[in-house]
Every structure is written in C-alpha cells, then in structure tokens.
Specification:
The structure is a single chain. The protein starts with a strand and ends with a helix. Strands 1, 2, 3, 5, 9, 10 and 11 form a seven-stranded mixed β-sheet that branches. Helix 12 packs antiparallel against helix 14. It is about 40% helix and about 20% strand. It contains 18 helices and 20 strands. The protein is α+β, with helices and mostly antiparallel strands. The relative contact order is 0.13.
C-alpha cells in the first residue's frame, strides 16, 4: 500500500525533503545546501543541476531515515522560490550569466537585475497589472525574461524552455512540460480566470511576443489538485523512489506554507477568509484567501485558483526580514557572523535589557526595513532602508538595541500591510506564522502585540513541507481533494493574544513609522 508522500521545499540556500504519513505526521527530514553565485551587484544565480542533485540527496536521506520503502511512496510534491530556470532546445542548461558560465542557468527570486524592465512593465498600465498591485516587481518572471532577451540575445535565440523553479522540478521528474496554475498565475502574469490566460497584447507591449514558443510554455495550466504524471525511470532512480510514484504540480514556497498552516480551513471558506498566513524566513510573505476578487495596491494578486479551487489568493510581502537581521549583525556586529548562536545571544541580551528598561528600551531608535526595496504595500523596489537615532556606540549592547528596533520595524511593516489589506476589504483577525521566524521569540511577540492579531504557531515542525505534502497526498490519491487532505493532515497550534497594555506604545511607534516614510519621501523629492 502506498500510504506515504514526499515533500520537497527548495529555498534560497538549501533544499529540504520530508516524508509524511497520510495524517500529516513528518517521519523524517533531510537538508542539502545549494550554491549561489553573485557575479555583479543585484545579480544572484543558481545552478539547476546543483539544485537537482541536492534534492535527490535530500529525498534519499529522508526516506532512509524514515525507513519507508520506495514502493510505499504514493507521490512527491515540490515547492520552490520563484526563480527562473533557462534551458536550451535540448533541455541542457543555458547560462544567464554575462560571463557565459553555463552552469549558472537560474536567476534567483531575489535577483534585482531587472529593475528597469520592471519599471517598463509598470509604465504600460496594462490590465494584467491589476493582479500585481498595479506595480511590477523585479522579483517576477516577466522582467527577468525581458532582461535576458535585451542583454543576452544570443542566449534568448538558443532557448527552448523557461521554467519557474517548481515547474523545472516536475519537468525533471516526469519529462512533462505541463506548468502549474500556481506558478504561472502568481509569477508570470497568467490570468487563470480568463478564457485565455496569456494576454498576447501585453506580451507584445513588453517585447516578449515570442515567449510561449521560445519557452515551451503551454496555453493551459494544471490546477494544484491534479497530478503531473508518474516519475520517469531515470528520475526515480536518482531520487531513490520508483515509477509508481505520482508527481504533484509545483507550488510557490510561500503558498505551500500558507496551505500548511491554513489547510485545516480548506473545507470551510467562510472561516478561511478570516485567517492570514505569515511565512517568515529570508523574506516574509503574507497570504490570504477570498471567495471574491479584492484587488489592492501594492499587493500581489488576486490570483484565481493559485492554490485552492474557486478561491482567490492575495499576497503581501517584505523582501528582506531574516536577511535584514543577518545584515544588521554583519553591519554593526564588529565582525560577528550571523549564525544561529549569534542571534540567540543577541535575543537573550535584548530580553535582559528590556527587563531593566521596560517599554522605553531603545525608543529613540527608528528603522525603515526597506533595505531591499518595499514589496508591499508601497510596491517600490527602489526603496532604501533608514536608521534614525544612532549614538557613537559600537558595543554589543548597541547592536542589541538596533537589532530589537529592527525587529519592531519588521513587525510594523506587517501592520502596514494588514492595514492596506483591510482597506481592500479583507477582514482578518488571526495570523498563522510559520518558517524560521517562529524560532525568534522577539518577532513572535511583536507580530502579536504590534498588529493586535491573535497569533498561532503551528505544532507541525515545517508547515511549508506540510503544505506541499497535502498536494502530494491528493496527487497520490490518498485524498480526493484539498478540502479533504487539508483538515486531515493539518496540525494544532499554540496561540498568543496581544497584550492590551502595550497597544498605546506600538500605536505611537506605528505613527512614527509612517512619519519616517514621509520624511524619506520628502528628502528624496528635494532638488
């Protein structure tokens, strides 16, 4: 009997694989690092062969740890960052590197080389942008594709396949060129709610009229509840599985996390609409679902059936959160590496100083966290961070004060996004947090007290993997749909309620936060 599934999550720096039973219990997990190349400012590249090798190693290791035979695995699912994989007509890697080094065939999600192309897309004011917050981000695939065509025309002429990273994994696993509705709708300006998803006039306006032919892109997409096909013989051997294993359509990693924490409400849309998922890691994504299309400026979406059938998904986000805290440590830490141990030491000292100074701790320090642009709700990829209130102090305690106020700024940014979502008609009261931020007690406290939301942290050790496992369980026919798989596989959570005594303090911080935005705008507007 095939009663188990494998879920794979490909993040910015590593690939993780987990083996789950049909009740959503994680039996074993394994991780492998993946390489990144930073050849120029704003450029970041992966090697898709390296990613595939990392995934194969992680899957083999996880299955061995779980002691589950290959013939018991019903399906495998993949989620990944929205990175762009480029292959030639024979399916071989095609470099996206100006130096032409062939192995670097993938533009990483956080790569901002296509800022000018993103601005060009925004200037078209095409109706497709109503589903991207009316502003194009350089993290989306269209600007990256435009950059490739403009700057590496010889590579464009040789191209045969363009994949979102999650779709590359399903292609590599099955040989099928089918694309997931999740990836194309969320990252490729594909309108799943329209009779024809690709908008040819838009592609012509941005100079990508030959995109579908050049990239091997289909007219139709696969909904998340369908299977792509079975593992090919070669992929099964490399993954340590067998050809009876089905492959689920790929997911954007943040949406896998949203499904992992909100899947328990998949059979109750009215309850689901009051829940919000926050997936916090290197960056942060906020995901909500709705029965109706509710667009909002600076939000990604609404995307029809990007995950759940018949429902719209909207996303807000912060481009650098965990990465920002690492940066603060590097910048002001006197050579301290931003390791897990360093973060823990800083957090411990912050708590000690807060116990002494109370609510006034570091109150004169103010931070705008837009060090890698503002994804939401301002939708300004050119935005820069701001720190106000630095003294002539380079001690460890000074680092701790700045670290604390950066955490506060990240939480204030989440509040800013939630306020804009409420203006767009989303009535949200519960924040489900998953990802690495769950292990940071400062952020978990602030997400609750700064936003005023009830905050739930799932007991599941990895909700991103769990969400992908849910889609694999449907592809492997362990459940007929996500409305069944979600509640059956979801985990309980621990909740935290906001402290009303702190509301006045964080309301004041929020006013100062908005004022700092106005001052930054005023400075940048001066001739």
């Amino acid at each position: 009997m095939r009663n188990y599934v494998v879920a794979v999550d490909i993040g910015t720096g590593s690939a993780r694989a987990g083996v789950f039973d049909r009740r959503g219990k994680l039996l074993a997990r394994a991780d492998r690092t993946i390489a990144m190349n930073r050849p120029e400012e704003n450029h970041a590249e992966h090697d898709s062969e390296d990613i595939w090798a990392a995934v194969c190693g992680a899957v083999r290791s996880a299955r061995e740890k779980a002691a589950v035979p290959a013939e018991s695995i019903a399906a495998i699912g993949f989620d990944a960052t929205c990175s762009l994989v480029v292959r030639d007509r024979d399916g071989a890697p095609l470099s996206v590197n100006r130096q032409g080094e062939a192995r670097w065939d993938t533009i990483v999600w956080l790569d901002h080389r296509a800022l000018a192309e993103a601005d060009f897309c925004t200037a078209t004011k095409h109706p497709v942008l109503d589903h991207s917050g009316r502003v194009m981000s350089p993290e989306m695939e269209m600007p990256k594709l435009m950059w490739l065509k403009r700057n590496l025309p010889q590579q464009w002429e040789r191209a045969g396949y363009f994949f979102d990273l999650a779709d590359y994994m399903s292609w590599r696993s099955t040989g099928s060129t089918a694309r997931s509705r999740c990836t194309l709708t969320a990252k490729w300006n594909y309108l799943a709610h329209e009779r024809r998803g690709w908008q040819q006039d838009y592609l012509e306006q941005i100079g990508l009229e030959d995109l579908l032919e050049r990239g091997g892109l289909p007219e139709e997409t696969l909904p998340v509840e369908r299977a792509v096909g079975r593992l090919s013989a070669s992929a099964a051997e490399e993954l340590g599985l067998d050809t009876g294993c089905q492959v689920a359509p790929g997911l954007i990693d943040a949406y896998a996390g949203a499904l992992g924490v909100l899947g328990g409400f998949a059979d109750a849309p009215a309850k689901l609409e009051r829940q919000l998922a926050l997936i916090g890691g290197t960056s942060s994504c906020i995901v909500a679902f709705s029965k109706d299309m509710k667009p909002g400026f600076g939000m990604w979406g609404p995307y029809f059936e990007a995950v759940l059938p018949g429902l719209w998904l909207i996303e807000g986000g912060q481009s650098a959160t965990g990465a920002l805290l690492d940066h603060i440590v590097r910048l002001h830490g006197g050579g301290l590496p931003p390791t897990t141990e360093t973060h823990a030491k800083i957090i411990e000292r912050v708590q000690e100083m807060r116990a002494v100074h109370g609510a006034d701790f570091a109150q004169r320090l103010h931070v705008l966290p837009d060090f890698h642009g503002n994804r939401s709700p301002l939708a300004d990829p050119h935005a820069l961070g701001v720190i106000s209130g630095l003294p002539l102090d380079s001690s460890f305690d000074a680092l701790c004060r700045l670290y604390w106020r950066t955490c506060v700024a990240i939480a204030l940014g989440i509040r800013h996004i939630l306020e804009m979502m409420k203006e767009a008609g989303y009535e949200l009261d519960t924040l489900h947090v998953t990802g690495g931020h769950v292990r940071n007690p400062l952020l978990m406290e602030l997400y609750c007290d700064v936003t005023g939301c009830r905050v739930v942290a799932p007991q599941a050790p990895d909700a991103v993997l769990l969400g992908t496992a849910m889609t694999a369980a449907v592809a492997g026919e362990l459940y007929p749909d996500l409305a069944s798989a979600g509640p059956a596989m979801s985990s309980a959570g621990t909740e935290r309620l906001p402290d009303p005594a702190l509301r006045r303090i964080y309301d004041r911080d929020y006013r100062r936060f908005l004022a700092l935005y106005r001052y930054r705008e005023e400075l940048e507007a001066m001739e």
